[in-house]
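hey m, so remember when u said the tokens were messed up on ur end? i reran from scratch. heres the input so u can diff it against urs
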Amino acid sequence: MNETLRLHGVAAAVALLIATGASAQNLTITNARIIDGTGKVIDRGAVVVKDGKIASVSAAAPAAAGGRTIDAGGKTVMPGLIDAHRHIVTGGADWLDKTAPKEMQEFLDAGFTTLLCALEPQPAVEAKNRINKGQLKGPRLYVAAFQPVQGGPPGPPPAEDPARTDPARLGSPDQPAAAVPREVTVKGVEDAAKAGYDYLKVVLNATKNGPELETLKLIVSEGKKHNLPTIVHAVSVRDTLIAIQAKPDLLVHTPHIGSLSDDPDAVKKIVDAKIPMTSTLSVFVPHFDEQGTALFRDRKPFPWNTLSSAGQGPVNARLLWEAGLVSYGYGTDTQWPPKETLGDELRALRLVFSPQQVVQIITKNAATATMHGSEIGTLEPGKLADIVIVDGDPLRDSGALQHVVTTIKGGEVMFEAKR
């Protein structure tokens, strides 16, 4: 008899867990000003979520969805924010267990529900797996593995942030780099697939008559065999024009070395390639600490000899946008806390983009850059219920994006500001 009661108790507990999990994926947001990410705005409406996906977005009274109801109090409801070029592994061997939980929560607190993590070591893949299994609370992660396009023995780790002394600033080296053997590239792509990566990441600084373009083409081709898109770091106009010849899936930087205003043919070639691009403008915008000290992304004094990129990047971005760039999305390429990084990137974006365009860049366009635009980036029925509630109107002032009060990922409330 006692055993029967025990089994009934276990069954009841399991049923409760299942019901709790289901209700966590079902919710209704009412009394909301809704920016759905497609260009549509509902001044007063509701969003219904069922099984972790958007069921309806409407000005009409919602049907009961079960689960929790959130009264937005007239605040703005919009798609979750997306950083389509971010670095997350900030520590040593203990990062995953000791540092990642706090840092992943910081992204949720800032409203970010998805990150494309470019050029990350294996702990980032494990973080992704733990988040997907519910063992770690954090945004949705997609992770890229590095693939070299130049041969030769690996050198020692750089003594400082390589962006400080980027060789792309010096133009194309006169001597071609050594080639990567074909079999090494093929195996590298296979290994990335087996290790659970989502993309292949290439850093392109092409040498004169060098092997980089052909190796990049091979990486793109091999990646397609394993369903691994290729994303490319190309920070100069010259390297961007080389990269697009290989038809990668994403350019993870706005070219900030070289002026597109002097080269309309280059603008046309980049736009006609129809490859999404991420912003990363804040890399060369000084980050100011509480004392007003200008810092670089490595937390060391800002290298003022790179300052021209702080202006050239936004100018090139706007020229590409005006010419019809297929998608220009939010990306940062930094390791500052996400709220601080958002402030830096917004400072750069607001130089040349309207608040309405910034909303598009950090939601729908960033989703396109991750290659998951069919699942995230807008509030449309059938898409994942990644939602933020912000205090203010980001269509009038993009600074409102820094005032997140609630973050919802897949229908689950992941962050609520203290009232």
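this time it looks ok to me. Residues 1-22 have pLDDT under 50 and may be disordered. if urs says something different then somethings off w ur setup not the seq
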